[in-house]
Amino acid sequence: MAKMIFVNLPVTDLARATAFYEAVGAEKNPQFSDGTASCMVFSETIHAMLLTHDKFRQFTPKAIANAKETSEVLICLSADSRDDVDDIVGKAKAAGGTIDPGPKQDYGFMYGRSFEDPDGHIWEVMWMDMAAAQEAMSSSPEQVGA
Asked: pTM of the prediction?
């Protein structure tokens, strides 16, 4: 069985956050959603658990970071093409997100952009031609920052 990832994100308005993630292409799984959480499915292996602050606090005693002011994590999703990257970022903008909070990345073999959701969580969207990336990295590894 493939490993799965569940990214848990605290949100201030569960309905708004759910609508935002549906707009960028995730599907809500009602089996794992209620008035305190929405399980947003990007693929069979990638899920974002949107949690109200009260629900999020049940999992950690730490203070919840204000993602609009503090970097907490950068999450990156793969895309099937350069056009898909632009499409997802465009959907995020149309749904009320902030686009390209960081610089666009274009290395020819790799193309990436990002968006910020209404709660300030940053998602990167990246396409890569794996064969060209391996060739570029083997001939010039300093070309792409880590």
From this structure: 0.86
* Amino acid identity, position 136: A
Domain interval for residue 102: 65-146
Do both 112 and 45 map to the same domain? no
pLDDT tens-digit profile, the chain (146 residues): 889 999 999 999 999 999 999 999 999 999 999 999 999 999 999 999 999 999 999 999 999 999 999 988 899 999 999 999 999 999 999 999 999 998 999 998 999 999 999 999 999 999 998 887 777 777 765 555 54
Per the structure block, which two tokens stand in for 109? 């073999």
State which H helix or E strand residue 129 sits in: none
- Spatial separation of the C-alpha atoms in residues 11 and 52, rounded to whole Å: 5
Answer yes or no: do 90 and 26 share one domain.
Answer: no
DSSP tally for the chain: helices H, then strands E: 4, 9
